[in-house]
Amino acid sequence: MDFKLDKKQLDFQKEVEHFLKTNVPPGYSEKSLYWPGGYGAILEFEERDPAVDRFRERMYEEGWTTMAWPKELGGGGRSMVEQAIFAERLSYHRAPGSDTAMLIVVPTIMRYGSDEFKKEWIPKIMKGNLRFWLAYSEPNAGSDLSAIQTKAVEDGDDFIVNGQKIWSSGAHISDYGWMVARTDLNVPAHKGTSMFIVDNKTPGITIRPLINIVGFHSFNEVFFDNVRIPKKNLVGEKNLGFLYLMVALDFERLAIAIGGFRRQYEDIVKYAKETKRDGKPISENYAVRKKLADLAIEIEIAYMYFFKTAWMMDNNMHPNIEASVLKLVATQLSRKLAGVGMDVLGMRGQLNHDSPYAPLDGRVCIGYLDSISAVIGAGASEIQRNIIAQRGLGLPRK
């Protein structure tokens, strides 16, 4: 792997910069309270903002959201490294990113959906600005998704679904659910689970808000009471949903807002240089300098894994282990960045974003709370370590 961008890639990076500077909704980067790696403070979850929808439409019109898709499916046929460059710049500028539909749903459909299924859903998602939520976790099935109990029973041309999902990010502002459910309870979950697309407007679906630790309504609990899903909404083949789920989780783990780490780090460094404590800039404190230096190194390591996964995909390698390494490194970094930020800001770091005295718009305070979710969402850090140990290093389960 070449660790430097070539001239073509650098020119592309400049093109992306220009697009973002001229199209990101005014004031959005300043209003966005998103903490890199977190799940609880994404601005779009608070309401459906027409300016955000329009920005995503512009990304689609310019081909940014589909640049690495095959040309026969309406994509640009660009490399995954170029896609990674765009994603890095997007998150650095705290711009509204591609949503669940584009990052997870469509890539999975491309791989496992029938030709008919692709023709129905991919154009609809691309052009319709549809939002999806991930119907995975349940009250007794978080990190261990093999414990899901939501059932889908065949009945004529439909499946009838009963059960409950929880920690359902953005379900209240989404159009469809990307759901896994048990379709055969007589075999282990990895042999008897299927994946479906569920219309949120279907009778029998109840969505209730869960206010998270940050104080935002990003999560929900969702109940399914005799919900009918047409069989045509079954993704791929029946009972192969656990395979599709594992691949979809890989796509989610690759969707790291890597540029956000560098942007937030730069903000903290700038604050340390400009703010005095005991008559001297905070940046002159040896302990602070060491913590910031360590963070700079870890951010570079995260960048390396980020671009390595993209490079592997361009070279027809499946970065299953690397996706877990990237997820583990980035989400642990999320917590460390928040911790160092609180150390640098001191007592004022505890001020919430609605206080006029909160440094850095209160983003570090939110990040300190939200980063707890980073090491849990899309597979807890313990799960990632198990994947790396067993699949990557060949270590035994016990």
Write the layout of secondary structure elements.
Layout: H1 7-23, H2 28-31, H3 50-61, H4 80-92, H5 100-112, H6 115-128, E1 132-135, E2 151-155, E3 158-166, E4 176-182, E5 193-199, E6 205-211, E7 217-230, E8 234-235, H7 241-254, H8 258-274, E9 276-277, E10 280-281, H9 286-314, H10 320-345, H11 363-374, H12 381-392
Parallel strand pairs: 1-4
Antiparallel strand pairs: 2-3, 3-7, 4-5, 5-8, 6-7, 9-10
Helix pairs in contact: 1-4, 4-8, 4-9, 5-6, 5-7, 7-10, 8-9, 8-10, 9-10, 10-11, 10-12
Give the uncertain stretches in residue-range form. Answer: none
Series of secondary-structure elements, N-terminal to C-terminal = HHHHHHEEEEEEEEHHEEHHHH
Globular, elongated, flat, extended or rod-shaped: what is the shape?
globular
Number of strands: 10
Specify the CATH architecture of the largest domain.
Answer: Up-down Bundle
The figure for the number of domains is 3
Strand order of the largest sheet: 1-4-5-8
* Strand coverage percent: 5-15%
Plain-language structure description:
The chain is α+β, with helices and mostly antiparallel strands and 398 residues long. It has three domains: 122 residues, Acyl-CoA dehydrogenase/oxidase, N-terminal domain (Butyryl-Coa Dehydrogenase, subunit A, domain 1), CATH 1.10.540; 109 residues, Butyryl-CoA Dehydrogenase, subunit A, domain 2 (Beta Barrel); 137 residues, Butyryl-CoA Dehydrogenase, subunit A, domain 3, CATH 1.20.140.10. The protein contains twelve helices and ten strands.
